Automatic annotation (TrEMBL):
Protein name according to UniProt: histidine kinase
PANTHER family: SENSOR HISTIDINE KINASE GLRK (PTHR42878:SF7), TWO-COMPONENT HISTIDINE KINASE (PTHR42878)
InterPro entries noted in UniProt: BphY/WalK/GraS-like, HATPase_C_sf, HATPase_dom, His_kinase_dom, HisK_dim/P_dom, HisK_dim/P_sf, Sig_transdc_His_kin-like_C, TPR-like_helical_dom_sf
Catalytic activities: ATP + protein L-histidine = ADP + protein N-phospho-L-histidine
GO MF annotations, alphabetized: ATP binding; phosphorelay response regulator activity; phosphorelay sensor kinase activity; protein kinase activator activity
SMART domains membership: HATPase_c (SM00387), TPR (SM00028)
TPR repeat residues: 188-221
Enzyme class, first EC level, given as a word: transferase
Transmembrane portions of the chain: none
GO biological process, one term: osmosensory signaling via phosphorelay pathway
Organism for this UniProt entry: Ekhidna lutea
Annotated keywords: ATP-binding, Kinase, Nucleotide-binding, Phosphoprotein, TPR repeat, Transferase, Two-component regulatory system
PROSITE patterns in the cross-refs: HIS_KIN (PS50109), TPR (PS50005)
Length: 559
């Protein structure tokens, strides 16, 4: 695919011959190749139309691999623009087919693309795993290009994690493979990856050379996404080199290019860098304009992305459920359905309670740190940033929780005291917080391993409800939290002297969307999620409450 114009011409000739012969399989294969080539050069609408025509031909003759090949191209169009969730759905469908056929070549291609989407979602852990799986599939297929295709993004992740030497070794290996196989288009992505490393190490001339060489190849190949990526990173490089005029020119070009080809992620990143340039030049009005565009664009992307993450992981669950219903007993299908409900609950909480505030907090904090000079103000900004970071970490944990619904994940030893204090600190913003006395009792030397996110979710919801429903008008509100090791189980108790509940209400509190008091802000999801988390740990929860006197939650978790 190094000469895409020639490839398109040959595919069109093959299509014409196939139609003359009435060969449905050959027609479908020619259409599938044409669709792929048009996707690479950015003719996205045409690519999807041709791919759908290919699917029609393959469906008529029952060619499942052909259908998967065409769907793979559609997925490429979707995730390279702005429809990651549907792209992931298509890729999962392809992967299922390729696994059944033991087609390691195409498994590697799909897994590499899935890694890209996981990176868009901010799910780095899943991205690393799927990239390594793509490398393994490439080894099984005995294909150096497939292996090196996954080296490139994996190197980028290592670079972001500060593992510069590992990133460099991997990208150099990729470049060596690309030169060995003659994959010019793939070489451009590898050079781009090395240019990023040179930028970080301060070898700016080498970085510029790599970016320019990569751009040249992408232009010759008609590769739209790769070219936009290079424009953006070269703009970043020029800012580092203080070549602001050149940086502005290339970033304006990146912005226009991204608008034309719907490359959303590059679009908002370019706005942020243009903001930095205007700020350096003292043009605060223009800086504010670009920053606002960045905030608006990113907030739109993140809010949209959150919804798409919800739908994508829900699609994964639905697809696995349908597949298993035909192969396993009904009780196992019921477990999958339970996981579906659990995923919906956790992600609903993310979209409504976390992602919006995180977006605003992170964006506004960026501007405030540079504009505020007062020490007291900076102190508050630091606390602001600390809590925003904590929220972001919780979100990442919940995303990992979704992954754990389908795969075994690493457990860790729980420091209950730290979890409790961190959760308490995170609710300083609640109205009753300053009035509540917290009493904490944790047995020393407790040894308990579990998924941190589940324990954090349990403690957090107990504290949130205790603070929200505190009685502030008659007595000193308190929340008494204890964690005990009772030989074969861990017991968590949370008692308060809040508004309490009658027995009828107690029986309903774990129902999704049920709210004890409509006058108090909430989603009606907290205790439902708490119960799901406890069930995931094979635990149990009991509630005792008396209206006007308070409530006690007793949670037992087996060791």
């Amino acid at each position: 695919m190094n000469d895409l114009k020639t490839s398109i011409k040959l595919a069109e000739e093959a299509l014409s011959i196939s139609k003359e012969n009435g060969d449905k399989r050959s027609i479908g294969q020619s259409l599938s190749h044409l669709s792929l080539f048009h996707m690479i050069i950015g003719d996205f609408d045409l690519s999807v139309n041709i791919a759908n025509e290919a699917i029609e031909n393959f469906t008529e003759i029952g060619d499942k691999k052909g259908i998967a090949d065409a769907k793979y191209t559609i997925a490429g169009v979707l995730y390279k623009t702005d429809d990651y969730n549907l792209g992931l759905t298509y890729l999962l469908d392809c992967l299922k087919t390729y696994k059944k056929l033991n087609d390691y070549h195409n498994q590697a291609r799909v897994e590499k693309s899935m890694g890209t989407i996981y990176e868009y979602f901010g799910d780095t852990s899943s991205a690393i795993k799927i990239y390594n799986s793509a490398i393994e599939s490439g080894v099984k297929a005995d294909d150096l290009n497939l292996q090196s295709n996954a080296f490139n993004p994996l190197s980028g992740i290592y670079l972001n994690q500060g593992k510069v030497q590992e990133a460099k070794e991997l990208i150099e290996k990729s470049i060596a493979f690309k030169n060995e196989t003659g994959d010019t288009r793939g070489l451009a992505f590898a050079l781009y990856g090395r240019g990023k490393i040179y930028t970080v190490t301060g070898e700016f001339d080498k970085a510029e050379s790599d970016f320019l060489e990569a751009e040249k190849i992408h232009q010759e190949m008609g590769e739209k996404l790769g070219l936009a990526m290079c424009y953006h990173k070269r703009g970043f490089l020029y800012i580092k080199m203080n070549r602001l005029d050149e940086a502005r020119d290339i970033l304006v070009k990146a912005l226009a290019y991204s608008n034309k080809y719907r490359i959303i992620l590059i679009k908002f990143k370019a706005n942020l860098l243009l903001h930095e340039i205007a700020k350096k030049e003292g043009n605060l009005e223009l800086a504010l304009k670009y920053l606002q565009q960045y905030i608006d664009e990113k907030e739109s992307v993140i809010n949209d992305r959150t919804a798409k993450v919800i739908k994508s992981y829900d699609d994964i669950n639905k697809m696995q459920q349908l597949e298993r219903e035909a192969e396993i007993q009904k009780e196992k299908a019921d477990i999958i359905e339970k996981k579906k409900i659990e995923l919906d609950s956790f992600f609903y909480r993310i979209s409504h309670d976390l992602k919006g505030p995180i977006t605003s907090m992170m964006s506004l904090n960026y501007l405030a740190k540079y504009e505020v000079k007062d020490p007291t103000g900076l102190k508050f900004i630091g606390e602001y940033e600390k809590q925003a970071t904590r929220l972001n970490n919780i979100l990442d944990g919940l995303l990992n929780l979704t992954k754990m619904s389908f795969n075994e994940d690493t457990k860790q030893e729980i420091d209950f005291e730290k979890v409790i204090y961190d959760c308490i600190a995170s609710y300083k913003f609640l109205a009753n917080y300053e009035l509540v006395e917290f009493k904490i009792h944790v047995d020393q030397h407790i040894k308990y391993e579990a998924e941190w996110t589940l324990i954090n979710t349990i403690i957090q919801n107990l504290i949130e409800n205790g603070v929200k429903y505190a009685r502030t008008e008659k007595n000193k509100p308190f929340i008494d939290i204890s964690v005990r090791d009772e030989s074969d189980k861990i017991v968590i108790e949370c008692a308060d002297n809040g508004i309490g509940m009658d027995q009828d209400t107690v029986e309903k509190i774990f129902t999704m969307f049920f709210r004890v008091n409509r006058k108090i802000e909430g989603t009606g999801l907290g205790l439902h999620i708490l119960k799901r988390a406890i069930e995931r740990l094979d635990g149990d929860v009991q509630v005792k409450s008396k209206l006007g006197e308070g409530t006690t939650f007793r949670i037992t978790l087996p060791l």
